[in-house]
Amino acid sequence: MQRQFTQKYLNKKLIAYFVAGAFLCFAMLLGISIGTVSVPILSIVQIIGSKVFPFISVNQIDQMHTNIVMNIRLPRVILAGLVGAALAIAGAAFQGLLRNPLADPYTLGVSSGASVGAVLTLFFQISIPFVGSFTLPLLSILFSFLTIFVVLTFAQKIERSMRVETIILTGIIFSSFLGALISLMIALTGDELRQIINWLLGSVSMRGWAYIKIILPFFILGSFILMLNGRELNAMSFGEERAHHLGVNVQRRKMIILTAGSILTGAAVAVSGTIGFVGLVIPHLSRLLWGPDHKHLLPLSILTGSAFLILADLVSRTIIAPTELPIGVITALIGAPVFAMILLQRKRAERSGS
Amino acid sequence: MLNVQQVCGGYTGESILRNISFEVGKGELFGILGPNGSGKTTLLKMISGILPIQEGSISVNGQLLSKFTPKQLAKMVAVLPQHSSQAFSYTVKETVSLGRYAHLDGWFQGWSKEDERIVQQVMVQTGVADFSHRDIQQLSGGERQRVYLAQALAQEPEILLLDEPTNHLDLSYQKELLDLLKKWTNERSLTVISIFHDLNLAGLYCDQLLLLNEGAINKRGTPNEVLKEERIKEVYQTEIKKHPHPKVPVPQMVLLPEWQNELEKKDPIINPNMLSLSKDHIVLQSSVPLRTMSSGVVGAGMGWYETFINRHVDKNYDCSDHRKEMAEYIRSHGFDPNESVGMMTAVRLEDVSYRLYTEKDFSVFVVVTAGVGNAVDASKSDSHSFEMVPGTINTWVFINGNITEEAFIQGIMTATEAKVKSLQDQMVIDRMTGTLATGTSTDSILIAATQSGKSLEFAGTITPLGKLISKGVYECTTEAIGKYVKRIQE
């Protein structure tokens, strides 16, 4: 009987990955297909197929379609996917670590730090030699690192044991402070105002392959580290003392997880600006659907997070075309009601005792 | 197993614990006691490696605690916390499986059959296997506590630390949990170190106790050495009384509430007006419970009782289940059997003799019903066959005073001696042997005291209390037998 149960359990997990993967494929195809020029899904498959397997000839495909897919839509969809995945997995990790389902990368002040780095770059027109146009993302990541470092040092100063409550409080304090700094810089800005505001609202448009190259190594590094810490995150979500009793090296693991989280957040903010709600809603949704086990929650959050942001980006550029809405508006508009609905349904299910 | 040497320390800055040294042997159930703020939890956190030690050393199996890696420590020492927070709805099995964390080496090592076997085993042992797929957030406090116990046991520790394990459990689970722990210490040499709030539970189950007071060791030893009335009073700063457990030779502590002092001032007097006589029974109804020692049919032994019933039954009364029948009789007359002492007699109740004897600041009220139809000489009782028939000399002695336990026993001796003398003076003869009788075959006695007013330590025959008892019992018995004999002769 036990074996049957285990079998069923495994099947359930497989189904979860399949559903999440299918959702991502669906979102990608839709994201590439729809726009001012509609590209048939079959063509997309052919175009991408010919790039992956160059020996297949694709003479009958429209050159314009190939251009649109390869130079505009595909990089945009991939970038949106990567940003969504990075924010979602970072959110899932932070929520597990802080034992708070309502925590996300913003709670720790990480994304505010990254924003300050970016705004500073735009404000002072900084350009680091040899890096050139990559100055903005690099400084964002640097600042998210600095912020998490300052927040943690400050939390440690308040309390040696660095309880999660202290970290959250410190994060919120720094977040507000950094937000005020950004507002101050915007107020002092003259000509660059529009550029900064645009960046702040968040977007994945017209970034191209270059930005994917920026975020990809950080994304792989951060996600890899976090997924190695799935078991530790499970233990941590029962409280730090409990994790310690179970044999987790709490101080070290906490630093590793926070660092990985800030790499992901910093990189995501650098390439797309501040996009809210992904890091909050996606992990929560995944947990409600497939359980809180971080070994599965983290990869599933990556799949659903990227699919969600691709769809959000699609809606943001088509809903009042040709004008584009900031993607953050869409994530909040879709995310908040979905979130509320799930919460309500879950409460109802609990009450009926199932 | 565990060796704690001159440990000092506590939270940042201040030192809560001072100079703590003790050892715990393998397979011991070791209890840590102490009032709130005495440093119990701090000590436990130090042993579990959460709080750093400022001075001294703690070693497990001869190795310093600080030399263990967290994983190594988790394989040796598991903790069942007092409170556990669960932010997410893990299933019971997922929760228990986390206990195997320390045993999984490497990042990618999978779940082995051995891990699965141990998880299943501990879930069965703690009785959580039946709901292994349910969310822990949906469980009751007691069920959840058992899930965390299973998680701790999945670590396969040699030492199990518990912080007030019975805190959220109802009575039956408290017993179940402690019985289980005791069994494991005996059968698998698991060492259990637990904080207890309940001194009596600690006394019942622990092999060794450590009593902490203001961060220092007050006493360490067996329950009998540690749970001394004076020591507990001093450490906990409260009124308690030591009392033996009815079945097991361990000390138990009972609280003395404030209202008990109030009661003493009221000073109830048991007097003849409280007695009601009828053909069927004699009842004395007290306004307050009396401390009673008796050999009644109902309410025998030591206890606190309010109603005292001496019931007339026929000579041919069937005694097969007399206790139950008597309890029903008491209930049917509007009294509570749990609050009553009930006796039986075949004697006509109109032969009763009672009188109040008063001294300067205490008094004794004696009630005797007597019949000597089955008089026996105790020195020759071998020649009588055993036969349960309703008692014939029932002696009640009510004392308006506060008497000790030894005075209860001395009171029974004194009353008995007075009864024997009365029988002899009236030349009551054992019909079987033809010698002077010392009583009848089924006599009953009751000593009840209000436990308020004057303190009376002794009740031997020449003590002030003893004098009143012997005089009263002698006179009343003599009078009652006189009435009986007179009625028989008529």
TrEMBL record, chain A:
Annotated signal peptide: none
Family membership: Belongs to the binding-protein-dependent transport system permease family. FecCD subfamily.
Gene3D superfamilies: ABC transporter involved in vitamin B12 uptake, BtuC
Annotated compartments: Cell membrane
Domain of life where this protein originates: Bacteria
This protein's record includes keyword Transport: yes
Protein name (record): Iron chelate uptake ABC transporter family permease subunit
Topology with respect to the bilayer: Multi-pass membrane protein
Transmembrane segments: 14-34, 74-94, 106-128, 134-155, 167-188, 208-228, 256-285, 297-315, 327-344
InterPro entries linked: ABC_BtuC-like (IPR037294), ABC_transptr_permease_BtuC (IPR000522)
Chief localisation class: membrane
A Pfam short name: FecCD
Record-linked SUPFAM superfamilies: ABC transporter involved in vitamin B12 uptake, BtuC (SSF81345)
Keyword annotations of the record: Cell membrane, Membrane, Transmembrane, Transmembrane helix, Transport
TrEMBL record, chain B:
Pfam families: ABC_tran (PF00005), CbiZ (PF01955)
SUPFAM superfamilies for the chain: P-loop containing nucleoside triphosphate hydrolases (SSF52540)
Biological source species: Robertmurraya mangrovi
Keyword terms, alphabetized: ATP-binding, Nucleotide-binding, Translocase, Transport
UniProt GO molecular function: ATP binding
PROSITE patterns xrefs: ABC_TRANSPORTER_2 (PS50893)
Protein name in the entry: Heme ABC transporter ATP-binding protein
ABC transporter domain residues: 2-239
